Every structure is written in C-alpha cells, then in structure tokens.
Amino acid sequence: MNTIPVEKTRCLIIGSGPAGYTAAIYAARANLSPILYEGIQPGGQLTTTTDIENFPGYPEGVSGYEMMQDLKKQAMRFGADVRIGIATQIDLSAAPYKVTIDGEKMLETDTLIFATGATAKYLGLPDEQKYAGMGVSACATCDGFFYRKKAVAVVGGGDTACEEALYLASLATIVYLIVRKPYLRASKVMQERVMNTPNIKVLFEHNTVGLFGENGVEGAHLVKRMGEEDEEKVDIQIDGFFLAIGHTPNSGLISEWVETDETGYIKTVPGTPRTNVPGVFAAGDVADPHYRQAITAAASGCMAAIEAERYLLHV
Ligand code: NDP
What we know:
Blueprint: E1 6-14, H1 18-29, E2 35-37, E3 51-52, E4 62-63, H2 64-77, E5 81-83, E6 87-91, E7 97-101, E8 105-114, E9 118-120, H3 126-130, E10 136-137, H4 140-143, E11 151-155, H5 159-169, E12 174-178, H6 188-195, E13 200-203, E14 206-212, E15 219-224, E16 232-237, E17 240-243, E18 247-249, E19 280-282, H7 294-313
Parallel strand pairs: 1-2, 1-8, 2-5, 8-19, 10-17, 11-12, 11-17, 12-13
Antiparallel strand pairs: 3-4, 6-7, 7-8, 9-18, 14-15, 15-16
Helix pairs in contact: 1-2, 1-7, 5-6
NADPH dihydro-nicotinamide-adenine-dinucleotide phosphate binds at residues 123, 155-161, 163, 180-181, 185, 245-246, 289.
C-alpha cells in the first residue's frame, strides 16, 4: 500500500536556475499557482560564477548569486511556491504525472517544466576546487573578460574548447589550448580557425596534473605524453584556467520517459520547449547543448510557462 502523501498541482517546476525561476514568474502571473523545487544546487550553475556582465539590464554587472536571489524573489512576489527539495523519482506513464520529492512525498501535476540544467565536467584535480573562483572557470563567455591582456589556458579538444579558445584569444595575450590527444576532435572549420590564430598555442598530448599560485592561479603543471617513456614535465604561466571538456545534462531522472540525444540532452520540438510527452517541457541547459547562457535559459523558461498555460486550456 502506498502511504506517501500526495499533493496535486497544475504546474510543477523542477530546477532553480534562470530557466526554472523565469518559468515560475510567468506561470505564477498566468495564475497557474506553480510549485518550484529548487533541487540540489539552489540557484543553479550561476551561483558558482563570479559576476554576470552579459545579462541585458545590468549595466554594472551583477553577481550570479544576487541575480538568482532576485529571480526567486520576483517569482515569489507573484505567488510561486518555491520549496527546498530534490525530485527523486518521476513517473510520466500517464497524466497527471507523478514526481516524488526527497523520496517521501509525491506531487501529481498536470504539467511539468524540467529545468535541471547541466553540469560542467572537471578533470577531478584537487587544485580545481582549491582555485574555484580564483582563476578556474568552466565558462569563457562568463569569465573571459576578467582576463584581458593576461595569459590563459583552455583544456579540451572539441568544438567548445576551440570556440572558448577563439573567444579568449580576442581578449587575452596568449591562450594555451591543452589537448590530451595528438589531434583536435573539433570540426574542421574550428580547427582551422584555431590553428590560424597567432596567439593560440596548441599543446597536443598534454595533460594537466596541477595548478599553482599564491592568491589565485599563476600557472599549471602539465605532463607531455604522460605515461610514455619520453614523458616530459612542462609548466606554463597562466592567470586563468578554463575547462571545456564537455557538460553533462542533468536529465538522468527523466530520460526514461522523454527523448534525449546520444549525450543526454532532452530533445525538444525545434523552437519550442515541448518534449515528446504532452504537457512536459524542458527548459534551459538540460535541453541546450549549444548556447548555455543565462539569457537563453531564461527565455526558454518563459516559453515553457506559456506552453504549459496553453496546454492547460485544452485538457
Ligand atoms: P566534446 O565531447 O566534443 O569534446 C570534449 C573534449 O574534451 C575532447 O577533446 C576530449 O578529448 C576532451 N576531454 C574530455 N575529458 C577530458 C579529460 N579528462 N582530460 C582532457 N581532455 C578531456 O564536447 P564539446 O563540449 O566540445 O562539444 C559537445 C557537442 O556540442 C559536440 O557535438 C560539439 O560538436 C557541439 N558543439 C558545437 C558547437 C558549434 O557548432 N559551434 C560549439 C560547441 C559545441 P578526446 O578528444 O581525447 O576525447
């Protein structure tokens, strides 16, 4: 016998980054009385960056934490019910959809907005933690501006790494691209751009084993051809260390029910946040392998709430 308490709602939002909060603002203003669960990292990835300077409307920039607090307040002002809690199980076999929170409570919802974001991959070095917010970043678009006329390194050999290296090359004096293989995995066009940019130096067959610096990153310890007989230790002087070795979309909980691509990003009907399950929408980075910006996440959260409202008119 199921003894878990059940609560009913018309609109449930999972995730509290710009996508989730924006969906909550729009859904609340449409009188859907949304319930939002903040998830594992309240405020999402932006709470781990420093200042956000590219979100329109903040001419002086704003800290990621502050922006998320503002979005939360704005959602609550219109009646969104923002709660601490983690979705632990989802059942989309039939509407109303069932979502278990913290393993101890169930919500039945007519619409579900899934906005759980993505998590940047790190190498797993203790120094990445040690220098978090002090020179280590996983977003060149967010933090690159702080490295004007400085030296930086980007780790990775895919399209993201090349794109980030090119972006940083327009700001920094030198960009080291640290690639573990003897070749780039990125598309030909990106490879050519990287190779033709004079201030990008590609370090093939290099692995990072540590970072150093007194009050922030001042350099990285690399090993060339690690594990081979001719392995070589190399140190580079840098001010910023950027990871671009991929992101993991946080879709595991729902991937049994909605279509995802081969890397786990939720597939949506192009130009909309609609998944293949009626009334279930995906917003923000969990469905976006390409842009991953606060502004694009917020926009898709808005679209998801409008879609939820329209869907509810017809059920
Ligand atoms: P990818 O998975 O394509 O590339 C990841 C890169 O990181 C690879 O070079 C990989 O090395 C390297 N890497 C992974 N783990 C480690 C590690 N532990 N140490 C060192 N290096 C590591 O991810 P991307 O984010 O670059 O791209 C994801 C998808 O998005 C791709 O399909 C890409 O084409 C697409 N994309 C398209 C863009 C565009 O069209 N403008 C822009 C950005 C992304 P290795 O090769 O050795 O496995």
